[in-house]
Amino acid sequence: MVIRHLEILEAVAETGTFTSAAKKLYITQSAVSHAVAELEKQAGTALFKRLPKGVVLTRCGSSLLEESQSILTACRNLDRRISHLEENTPVNIVSSITIASFLLPKILSELKTSFPQVQLSVRIARANTAIDILQRGNADIAFWEGVTPKGNFHAIRLGSYKLCAACSPEFESSVKTISPDQLCCYPLLLREQGSAIRDTLDNTLSLANLKAEPVWESVNSLALIKAAEAGLGITILPETLLSDSLLLKKLRVINLENIKMENQMLALFHKDKYITKPFQILLDQLKNNHDLCSL
Fold it and tell me: For the segment 172-183, what is each residue's pLDDT rounded down to a tens digit?
């Protein structure tokens, strides 16, 4: 069944003649007659009573038109929306946990303020998982931290953050500075393996042939902060995440000898990615504040 035939059926029923229906639809009368004949052939019955001055629907014709109305309405609604499909397509974002904790909300809040029509879908995952999701094509863009991943990506630099060691003021209160090997002897409260924060720490310690053995391991940075505040050990997290606890003197920084740990923050997307209008708005928002580079 052809949708156009149903439109013709409707027009004939509304106007009462094949000629008037043809004028309304800007087609020939023969096209109208052919469409009605095709529908009557499919239905196996007459759909119109032919009268001296026009036509009226038969009961079967009325039944077909009634069932067709929802189809015609849906098609007309789709026709109005089809040129705006791209604008209504959500941007699928995957973000590492740390970036989602302090940077991503600010970025997306600014975007929604300037462009409230943009639809966004956000998934939070650890850094390595975020890249896997992007590579499989299940996200348009990934907010990533740590060592720049290999791949056919464009990247927008979002800045960087420093990693700090912190503990409660009462925990080993006499200790102000420790070496990497001394660090590994303390109870450590660390992010899980596979996170960008843990990878940076593990890579740094491996250069000194050392390995961290945490007593606490968590995907939740706040849980580690609370454990450190309770005096359960030393945590190593981004300085930004520790700032409130440091300001309130619930935590203090422990200096690490000859260790400087920093993670880059990047927004990554495939070089051959089709850029929808909403996605371009997000990219423009990021580029206005940061420099775009190719990896």
Answer: 888 889 999 999
Alpha-carbon span 35 to 30, nearest angstrom: 9
Mean pLDDT, the chain cut into blocks of 10 residues (295 residues total): 89 95 94 94 94 93 93 85 70 92 89 87 89 90 84 88 94 87 95 90 93 94 96 95 95 92 92 87 82 41
The topology (CATH level 3) of 85-295 is D-Maltodextrin-Binding Protein; domain 2 (3.40.190)
Q: For the beta carbon of residue 24, count every other beta carbon within 10 angstroms.
A: 16
CB atoms within 10 A of CB 218: 16
Q: Are 187 and 234 in contact (CB under 8 A)?
A: yes
**Secondary structure class of 179 (helix, strand, coil):** coil
Positive/negative CA dihedral, 167, 171, 174, 177: negative
Name the residue ranges covered by the structural domains of the chain.
3-84, 85-295
Q: Find the radius of gyration of the CA atoms of the chain.
A: 32
| Architecture of the structural domain at 3-84 | Orthogonal Bundle (1.10)
Q: Is the pTM of this model over 0.70?
A: no
> How far does CA 172 lie from the centroid of its chain?
44
Sheet strands (E) in the chain: 48-51, 54-57, 91-96, 120-125, 141-145, 153-167, 177-178, 188-191, 216-218, 234-238, 252-256, 262-270, 292-294
